């Protein structure tokens, strides 16, 4: 079986490599020539645990190819996945220009029946727009070639993307064509050896499922951040409360960790987009509006704690920051709370010395530019710093040598944005540690 995956980013590259890993012939297509050349030379465009190995193994075997030529890639392919970006437009709605651009190109270049499956996160009714774009391109050529559209939203998490793709909780397929359903079933068979995991539905429901899933997860996080902020006011400990409620299986113990707000390329944009979709239909998604508001405020919680401790004016002070990426095990800096925290500290007159195990190049090049001093390791960031801010919970920050930390910092003060440290223990070592959701 042969497929094409158009868009070789987090989703396209991981999906393409994992499909190739189960024996499918895959061509990953991108318009970015440099990305494609690099991949052919074994250079990954992103940091994702386990990805390099799967890509290189399958590239060497010949099952995984990289190309900028969409026409060639879809020749003989049963499925063309659209996995390009859907960034937020100015009004918050998902910008579909890349998705529809690919649909148009497929319609222009296809030579046989093909299933066009959208993997990008797209608002409900996009399936119809994709179908219309392909039809319009075909009719320009005077062609009536048959094709099907499908919605196959992706649920992988960055930092665990390969694992998530290879062992999915579920595979959602929105489809309205029997032949297409059969092809998708065949394609996904290897990923559900431990039980039937495909949920078939109509295309609009599949499109909505993706937004509802991300919106639900974002809601859990904002809910817990709200509760954590209240815990702090009333003298309760959010960590205890988290454990107390998470043990109820109806609530579950995942995605209820308070912190510095959710970031990344998905929750912020997808919550905005579903709110916008609702508005277009004259409906207010009030819960999600609050989810977004809580999250926007939560990004300021850590810098507020710093100012409560040291005063509003931080002129001449230096802060060490451990972690920049929006979560561990990724170099993705999109919507990372670190950006807001750095801006707040700088606006109050402070300088920031940062260390992140993998995201510093990305931060330096695209997001935080020259706003911070980048350090070669976690300890270097502490030298002459007035306090430490833990922003991303990378494993290597979990058990530092506290005696070294204490010696390097000017003050033994820590602001733990992810509640990874045992503050009672740190107190016995002479540290004053502030967490999220308890005094
Ligand atoms: N990043 C993630 O963890 C997840 C992302 N998604 C969704 O998947 C979609 C893609 O997201 P990412 O992979 O993060 O994006 P990305 O920005 O990492 O990659 C998109 C790629 O598409 C390429 N591209 C743009 N126009 C093209 C065209 N006409 N032809 C070929 N390639 C083209 C870009 O050069 C880029 O390499 C988005 O809709 C996102 O919401 C869904 C689940 C997880
Ligand atoms: O649509 C997407 O792109 C993806 O979005 C999220 O994945 P991702 O953004 O990669 O990472 P998450 O692990 O969900 O973390 C998102 C943010 O929430 C924060 N978070 C997560 C969990 C938690 O308990 N508390 C919390 O603050 C993280 O620190 C991070 O900033 C979803 O988890 C994926 O299922 C989905 O496919």
Automatic annotation (TrEMBL):
Q: Which domain of life is it from?
A: Bacteria
Which EC class heads this enzyme's classification? oxidoreductase
**Does the record's keyword annotation contain Metal-binding?**
no
> Which key words are in the record?
NAD, Oxidoreductase
Which first-to-last residue range defines the signal peptide?
Answer: none
Q: Sorted alphabetically, which NCBIfam families does this protein's record hold?
A: NDP-sugDHase
Under which name does UniProt file this protein? UDP-glucose 6-dehydrogenase
